[in-house]
């Protein structure tokens, strides 16, 4: 299911999310606009993925990503949220986020408690870090997608 769409390259503006308190949990997720989400293959499975991400012309970092159902649209549309495995000094709403999704971890799940949710995400992050050090994933960190001529970011 998921694998045949990967690697998946995507670039778009970071918008305000649902204010579900991801940041308060220590796992902020940069949300893509509805328009960017609509450009994803409609049959890409929901779940947790990993890959590489870069904000503006910044450094390329490891990331974990969730493709989930969008509560604003009664779960008929998807949402795409990227947690970059890096500590940023400031928020970056309105900036251009570039990502390449290289692997799939697991389907979406419901958790009995907040603690269970947080520990699952911590495990996802550790799994992503390990996988991304493997040559087949590491090579995409250096992809030209992240290093456009003149450092300019061009949308689509
Ligand atoms: P929202 O509901 O608006 O998406 P979040 O609590 O998920 O709010 O926080 C997401 C915002 O946090 C991002 O849009 C970004 O500006 C900021 N942010 C800071 N550090 C990170 C990070 N490591 N990964 C993702 N977003 C981050
Ligand atoms: Mg978010």
Structural class: alpha+beta
N-end to C-end Cα span: 25 Å
Record the strand order, biggest sheet: 1-2-5-4-3-6
CATH superfamily: Riboflavin kinase-like
Give the tally of β-strands. 6
The total tally of domains equals 1
Low-confidence stretches: none
> Which bin fits the share of residues in helices?
10-25%
Q: Gyration radius, to the nearest Å? A: 15 Å
Mean pLDDT, all residues: 92
Order of helices and strands: EEHEEEEHH
In the CATH scheme, the class would be: Mainly Beta
Strand content: 25-35%
Bound molecules: adenosine-5'-diphosphate, magnesium ion
Give the CATH topology: Elongation Factor Tu (Ef-tu), domain 3
CATH second-level architecture: Beta Barrel
Pfam families: Flavokinase (PF01687)
Organism: Catharus fuscescens (Veery)
Keywords: ATP-binding, Flavoprotein, FMN, Kinase, Metal-binding, Nucleotide-binding, Transferase, Zinc
Catalytic activity: riboflavin + ATP = FMN + ADP + H(+)
Overview of this structure, please?
The chain has one domain (2-140): Elongation Factor Tu (Ef-tu), domain 3 (Beta Barrel), CATH 2.40.30.30. Helix content is 18%, strand content 30%. It has helices at residues 34-38, 114-132, 135-138, and strands spanning 8-15, 30-32, 47-55, 61-69, 78-84, 96-106. The chain has a six-stranded antiparallel barrel. 27% of the residues are buried. Residues 17, 22, 29, 31, 81 line the site of magnesium ion (MG).
């Amino acid at each position: 299911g998921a694998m045949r769409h990967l690697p998946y390259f995507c670039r778009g503006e970071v918008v305000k999310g649902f204010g579900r308190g991801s940041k308060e949990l220590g796992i902020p997720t940069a949300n893509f606009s509805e328009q960017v989400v609509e450009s994803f293959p409609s049959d890409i499975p929901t779940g947790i993925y990993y890959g590489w991400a870069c904000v503006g012309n910044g450094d390329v970092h490891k990331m974990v990503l969730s493709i989930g159902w969008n509560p604003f649209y009664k779960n008929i549309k998807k949402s795409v949220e990227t947690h970059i495995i890096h500590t940023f000094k400031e928020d970056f709403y309105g900036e251009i986020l570039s990502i390449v999704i290289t692997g799939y971890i697991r389907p979406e799940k419901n958790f009995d408690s907040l603690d269970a949710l947080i520990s699952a995400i911590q495990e996802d992050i550790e799994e992503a870090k390990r996988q991304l050090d493997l040559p087949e994933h590491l090579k995409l960190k250096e992809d030209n997608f992240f290093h456009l001529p003149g450092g300019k970011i061009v949308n689509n």
